[in-house]
Amino acid sequence: MKTTANIAFRNLSRQKKRSFLLGGAIAFGVMIVTLINGFAGAFSANVSENFSHLLAGHVFISGAEKNGDKELSVIRDDAALSAAVRQAGIAPKYLTRRSEFSGTLIFEGKKIRTNVAGVELATEDYLRERLVLKEGSWDNAADPRALILSEKIAERLNVEVGDRLLVQMQTVNGQNNVGEFRLAGISYDAGIFGQLLSYAGLEYVNELLGLKSGEYQTMGIMLDSLKSAEPSADKLYAGLSASVSMFARGERDESGAQTPFQALMREQNKEDWEGVRYRLFTINELLSQIEQIVAALDTAAGVILVVLFIIIMVGIANTFSMVMFERIREIGTMRAMGVQRSGVRQMFLFEALFLAIGGAVAGIAAALLVMGGLSLINFGMDSPAFLILKNGHLSFYLPPLRAMGNIAIIALLTLLAVARPAGAAARLEPAVALRTQK
Amino acid sequence: MKRFTIIALLALVAAGAAFAQDVNKILKDLDELGDFDNQDFSAVYTIVSQKPGEKDSVSSVQLFRRDKKKQFTMIVLLPEVNKGQGYLREADNVWFYDPTSRKFSFSSIKENIQDSEARNSDLTLRGFAVDYESSGVREGTIGSIPVWIIDLKAKTNDVSYERLVLHVAKRQTMLLKEEAYSVSGRLMRTTVYGKPVKLGDKQLPSQIIIMDELNPGERSQLTMTQQSLSAIPDRVFTKAYLEQVSK
Question: What CA–CA distance (Å, rounded) separates A112 from A89?
């Protein structure tokens, strides 16, 4: 077996150009598929992480108050929530307290609909770290009526720092209200979703919503990493359930028709309840449908892998048929010297296996190099593709099992392609092979 | 002297109470004028909306009201692209029907009609006396017509506007103008009612002009035609009717 493998390896190195071309074709296919796999592997994590930055948390707690038919979104006293966070021992990186409304900003005859998040502008370091101001300064945010807009919204409204804008919105009770903001800063656009969110002082947003000072709607808990979101949420939910009334957490829908968060809201609407209750959800539960995009990308990668290799297999099968004719007298000599049919077949199959493994490993190595190169490019935090980037850079994650799976598929397909010429070589009679004239 | 002061104060309180009663009566009269309690009401409203820099848009809706059961059905006749869309109200629930998707979705009485300044609530039963209380009354004029200017404050936070200022004709109770203010106290819209039409013992304006005070130049003019008090079949106030009429 070892001698056969050695002969197979030597045969490959004898025909360097041909081996290089065949191996190169395999490597190219593997590289493309690995790049897609690597992109899909990081896609979900990047989108979730970027959304968690936009929404300021990996785990969220929101409050609901129901009296008769009327339901309000509010957290009036968060002592129990803060205590539960402490007791859960999850060590949040940041705790954010926000209220939010959807309203129409109006400036000199121009209007645009946007969400305005009420944040503790003076103390929420998190926002200052994440949001890069293009114009204006954070000092302006000391104004109780300060508003920070993304550059696209500011451009569409034609506003400049210092201008006063009106906002038309509704209170938590659904009454019409109008507020007046002063533009404190214009931030770089954080992709399409960044344009949807503007920031204002929590106190004033509360006033417009009809909430009292100190109240808010959602607590965001930013953890060290996205991976901690689910275990931390489980601990926190257990702690909270002991001290306050909680809605059941949203169930994952295997069909993907709704996110666990949508399931939570649907169940909540069905329930008959009164008083104060809280809901807990994670960024993954909000964005679980991203997993479907990842699954679609992986399926596409699989289809590309098979299609590319069917084409490559045809090439390999033809090449090995030619190889058999080239080496027909050599095969006859080997057979005459006592090499069994299985030995000849094994020699061809070993050649194919070495070619497949060499090509696949080279393809993965090339893909890793390309990934490394691409991830060095800084697209900037204001890139339209912000959501799929990691700190402005493309990022990739290739699950090792998937890479090994790809190598196995390629090895199998190559062996299949070579099976027929290898069988034909093995079936040759020594005398017939020796007298064959090329 | 002391007795004199007490009498004067009592007289003032009595006068105030009497005036408050008058205001309440005015509000009730206004509500009753547009409340078709024992009969059905239907009409076609044509809405012409103006926005600066844009072409005027025209929409038209057929309205059916049954105030006794707090029901209404509204069917969009114009623009052609939205024809067949409709609203159905039963008590406190309002549904919107989209004939393209053939689906109903929850809506609200506070929803704007098409892209105009008018809301569903502008064409339905009002309840000034129920929802608001007077916080001040003074006399004034609109043109040469003497009016009561009644300042109203919402009793609950269920209504769209926290404060309303009504201009009511003195000679014959009739709402001529309404100013609606936000919770923060900013004037949001002004509505002018004109050309009243008698329908039995009820009275409705056949022309309504709504001006958006936050977006100067944006206004909608509603004209009522084909008004009728004829009985409306029960099936009109059903989802099935909206589905059928849009086919």
Answer: 43
